[in-house]
Amino acid sequence: MIRFYGVTKIYPNGVKALDNVNLHIRKGEFLFLVGPSGAGKTTLTRLIFREELPTRGQVLFNGKNVARLRSREVPYLRRKIGMVFQDFRLLPQKTVFENVAFALEVTGASSREIKRRVPEVLKLVGLEGKAGVLPAQLSGGEQQRVGIARAIVNNPVLLIADEPTGNLDPETSWELMELFQKINNNGTTILMVTHARDIVDAMKKRVVALESGRIVRDEEGGGYRNEV
Amino acid sequence: MRFRTLVYYFREAFLSIFRNSWLSLAAVGTVTISLLILGCSLLLVVNTDRLADQLESSLEISVFLKDGLKQEEIRELNDKIRFLPGVVQVQFISKEEALEEMRRSFGPRKEILDGLEEDNPLPDTFRIKAWRADQVVEVARKVASMDGVEDVRYGQGVVERLVVVTHWVRVAGIGAMILVGAAAVFLISTTIRLSVFARRREIGIMKYLGATNWFVRFPFLIEGMVLGLLGSLLAAVLVYAGYFSLVEHLARVMPFIPLVSDGQVVFSLLGGLVGLGLIIGALGSAISIHRFLNV
Ligand SMILES: Nc1ncnc2c1ncn2[C@@H]1O[C@H](COP(=O)(O)OP(=O)(O)O)[C@@H](O)[C@H]1O
Ligand SMILES: [Mg+2]
Q1: Are residue B207 and residue B179 in the same domain, yes or no?
Q2: Cβ–Cβ of A78/B209 closer than 8 Å?
Q3: Total domain count for chain B?
């Protein structure tokens, strides 16, 4: 579904964040992207999302060169991709329901669709009772569930999560992993950047390790580090 | 476009307007002032144009005759004038006709002329039309030297002067309006810029959620246009109220100054003001959207 061909990304300040990356993410996969900080993990996700353009090489999404998209096609690419962030990025003045509905609203969805779809995803992420609550009244784990609900409410084909449990305790992290697994079981491809070693080791997914912008390991059912 | 989306645009626009209420107020105020200037100078121009039309043409010469001339003498004078070079038309107006004419022009206040019939102070008059403006002075000079002529008056360039005045009113009005209008555009674009900054977090999230550029921009465009509309409506109401109370007042005090008061002219002028307010608003927000919302 997503292919990187010889992708190099050099930022305008001269930093080489990715160096000749070749990668193929298949439909339905659950993939961990690991590596020390500054290795280029976030940059890799930005290239898929077309927040940045590759300096060299190509990124293909369903066979289409992402860099070649016209600017008015970009929003439609982004609607196929859900994004989950370490800092949740919820709108503090909107309720849980409104935060999730916002994702549908920006696509011009009807009120009926919103009323049908939002409770559905809130149920999926386990927040049925919290629809009318403001984010500040929720725990970190619950806030991230709102973030996940917002990311999947559009039925994206790919869910990118950049250190989604970076701010959360291990127990909460595990609960969220179960949720991600459930979403993956429903057919959504998942690309997760993480430093949570236990989780990567236990879940036995495909692990891609970056170091200084290069892929140093790409292993099916691997662990966080090589020696595991 | 879905109804829900429209509701969303307008809700966001009005939220922003109230969030920056002071700046919004200042923006509305400058739009009002610039359009007030434009509205007033346009009304002045319309009225002086109308006045110029109604004043005697500058080609006309009035010849006032001495009191007590005989019919014969009058006819003789008439013939002499008619064959002067440059004269197109001669019309005799007796003192009775002159009084009647004046009475008509006074309209509802004509009673003040009652009682003048017995001792009519108005002279018999010839009204002469010249062929060309540059012949007026020569014809007037010749007529003035004729026997039986008391006095000769002609336009002496009143109409021309009026046209020059209108021209400058137009230039000055439009110049002032452009200056204040530019200030209004600037203030609106500043307001919109603040709104964009106040909502940059939301805008960032919207981009992640796949909002199109226009979806992001529309509330800001509406915000600017609402500011322009409010300012221009205020200006239109002020111009309307001010002008019609002036019309009413003048009709009582100086009925011989005919102000333009037909709805057609005044309302299309007010409509123009409102349209211009919308354009000022759209322009102001377009500038900020272009500079600060490159999605
Ligand atoms: N917008 C940017 N401009 C310049 N340099 C950047 C930018 N984003 C990231 N970098 C640099 O690129 C490198 C990779 O960053 P990033 O992809 O964020 O790494 P990771 O997510 O693995 O921590 C780092 O050295 C970082 O400083
Ligand atoms: Mg990162």
Answers
A1: yes
A2: yes
A3: 2
CA A35 to chain B, closest CA, distance in angstroms equals 24
**The domain containing residue A110 runs over which residues?**
91-154
β-pairing, A2-10 vs B125-130, is: unpaired
Q: B67: domain CATH number?
A: 3.30.70.3040
- Residue B58 pLDDT class (50, 70, 90 cuts): low
Q: Which two tokens stand for residue A98?
A: 């409104």
Residue among A77, A103, A114 minimizing CB distance to B209: A103
Say yes or no: B233 and B282 in one domain. yes
Q: Residue B3 class from Cβ within 10 Å (0-12 exposed, 13-18 middle, 19+ buried)?
A: exposed
Q: Same domain for B173 and B37?
A: yes
Q: Domain end: B106, B126, B155, which one?
A: B155
On whether the CB atoms of residues B22 and A128 are closer than 8 A, the answer is: no
Last residue of some domain: B155, B170, B193?
Answer: B155
Predicted TM-score (pTM) of the model is: 0.73
Percentages (nearest 5) of helix, strand, coil residues in chain A: 35, 25, 40
First vs last Cα of chain B: how many Å apart?
21
Considering only the beta carbons, identify the residue of B4, B206, B295 that sits closest to A111. Answer: B4
CB contact A114 to B (< 8 Å): yes
Q: Which helix (H) or strand (E) holds B114?
A: none
In chain A, how many domains are there?
Answer: 1
- E-assigned strand segments in A11-113: 16-25, 30-34, 56-61, 64-65, 81-85
Q: At what angle do helices B21-54 and B3-19 cross, to 10 degrees?
A: 100
Q: Which atom of ligand 1 is nearest to the CA of A11?
A: 4
In this structure, the answer to whether residues B190 and B271 fall within a common structural domain is yes
Whole-angstrom distance, CA of residue B223 vs CA of residue B193 = 11
Residue B207 with chain A: CB contacts under 8 Å: 78
In this predicted model, what pLDDT tens digit does every residue of B117-132 receive, in sequence order?
777 888 889 988 877 7
How sure is the predictor about A228, in pLDDT bands with cuts at 50, 70 and 90? very low
DSSP sequence for A111-178: HHHHHHHHHHHHHHTT-GGGTTS-GGGS-HHHHHHHHHHHHHTT--SEEEEESTTTTS-HHHHHHHHH
Q: Are B44 and B256 in contact (CB under 8 A)?
A: no
In chain A, residues with a C-beta closer than 8 Å to the C-beta of B206 are: 102, 106
Asked if residue B203 and residue B145 are part of one domain, the reply reads: no
Domain span at B66: 58-155
Quick one: pLDDT at residue A85? 94
- Ligand 1 lined by A53 (C-beta under 6 Å): no
DSSP B235-252: HHHHHHHHHHHHHHHHHH
